[in-house]
Write a structure and sequence with these properties.
By secondary structure, the chain is mainly α. The protein has two domains: 287 residues, Fido-like domain (Fic-like fold), CATH 1.10.3290.10; 106 residues, Arc Repressor Mutant, subunit A (Orthogonal Bundle). Helix content is 57%, strand content 3%. It has 17 helices and six strands. The longest helix is centred in the last third of the chain and has 25 residues.
Length: 401
């Protein structure tokens, strides 16, 4: 019989929850402000870029990331000739696809339903099923079976993971504790605590960190807090040493009689939850700064001036970008898709020049369209980030070519 008390406490006692409730309340308020700040057009344009960024950062935590530009090439099915780099590209694409697929599959599921052993197994299964068998090998040369719990004992750092036979019952106890939490603040604290406790169980032979981060991302998504505009993955990667230290400390045993009632330290679980919620709060505030729509027109102008001076080849012709397209581009960014003829008319340029400008902006990617005749929408290509959303993804600014 599995001793399910071995990873208690799963949730801190009421007497120590005050600071965490305060952080959670701030985070919820900031998320609502961010959502009111970003229109549908901006969310649609940014979401694919942020999904790639999430993939980059979660794999960076594992030391298996590739350059943002290489991810872009992989999206176009252009994989590197170097086998090791191509493997990282495939992993990046797999993460992006699973994140999107599971967000859509969850639909309007209640946040509590996301705390499910089946979903945890499904995350791992989907992620590794998208990789060829040759990629499904751990650093210790163990085969990774998608969605299958490990069958052997594991030690990660100083933490000895529970026996393989205990995994199923521990995950059921994990899910039962968090799915019954009531109220947004309690759920947020639970999302933070559950992240560590899932990592503590270490259900798979490999891929536990990726699965845990994707799971937590999905909890926040189900709560309606992310809206495709932010994820903790960027913040966790950019404070990676602290992330690992807090995870490791939350593995520690209870220190004394006031350190909770379970075998593990309640104080360190609270410290991890405080760190995690702080990372989320920082990311939401950062995105609010990046999405300062009052200055968007000026940022679009800087981009157009750059493109006007840096012509590139489009087939047998050169690109044509004119600053006269600013008002039309700003309108599409703020209001959403419009017909191509309307965009050309809004530039005030002649029909031929206006269409060449439109074709150039489509080729660059700051405008997008499903077909040659479809309405055009705003886009955020990798090469535009340093102009439109500086410091959002610094590594992409360095390696955007």
């Amino acid at each position: 019989m599995t001793d399910i008390s071995q990873f208690q406490p799963l949730y801190p006692e009421e007497r120590v929850l005050g600071p965490l409730h305060e952080l959670a309340a701030q985070l919820i308020a900031e998320c609502h402000t961010l959502q009111g700040q970003a229109g549908e057009s901006m969310v649609r344009a940014l979401s694919p870029r942020l999904r790639a960024m999430n993939s980059y950062y979660t794999n960076k935590i594992e030391g298996q990331h590739t350059k943002p530009a290489e991810i872009e090439r992989a999206i176009r099915k252009d994989f590197n000739a170097d086998a090791a780099l191509a493997k990282k590209q495939r992993l990046a694409i797999a993460h992006m696809e699973v994140e999107q697929q599971l967000e859509q599959a969850l639909g309007k599921a209640a946040p509590g339903e996301v705390f499910s052993p089946q979903l945890v197994g499904g995350i791992h299964s989907l992620l590794y099923s998208k990789l060829p068998e040759s990629d499904r090998v751990s650093d210790e040369a163990e085969p990774i079976v998608p969605g299958e719990y490990r069958r052997t004992g594991v030690k990660t750092g100083l933490h000895v993971a529970p026996p393989a036979d205990d995994i199923g019952e521990l995950l059921e106890a994990w899910a039962e504790r968090y799915r019954k939490l009531a109220g947004a603040e309690a759920l947020l604290i639970g999302a933070a605590c559950s992240h560590h406790r899932l990592a503590w169980i270490h259900p798979f032979i490999d891929g536990n960190g990726r699965a845990a981060r994707l799971h937590t991302h999905l909890v926040l998504h189900a709560m309606g807090l992310t809206q495709g505009l932010w994820s903790p993955m960027r913040g966790l990667a950019r404070s990676q040493d602290q992330y690992y230290a807090r995870l490791n400390n939350a593995d520690l045993s209870r220190r004394n009689d006031v350190d909770g009632r379970g075998p593990l330290s309640q104080e360190e679980l609270v410290n991890f939850a405080s760190y995690f919620l702080g990372v989320c709060l920082d990311q939401v505030r950062f995105m609010r700064e990046r999405l300062d729509l009052a200055s968007l027109r000026g940022r679009l102008k800087s981009l157009l001036l750059h493109l006007q001076d840096q012509a590139w080849e489009i087939g047998s012709e050169k690109s044509v970008v004119k600053i006269e397209a600013l008002e039309a581009l700003h309108y599409v960014a703020m209001a959403g898709p419009i017909e191509r003829s309307r965009f050309v008319a809004m530039t005030g340029l002649g029909d031929r020049t206006g269409r060449r400008v439109l074709a150039s902006l489509l080729d660059f990617g700051v405008l997008t369209g499903d077909s040659s005749r479809s309405p055009i929408a705003f886009g955020v290509p990798l090469a535009s980030l340093r102009f439109l959303f500086p410091n959002l993804w610094p590594e992409a600014e360095i390696n955007s070519n």
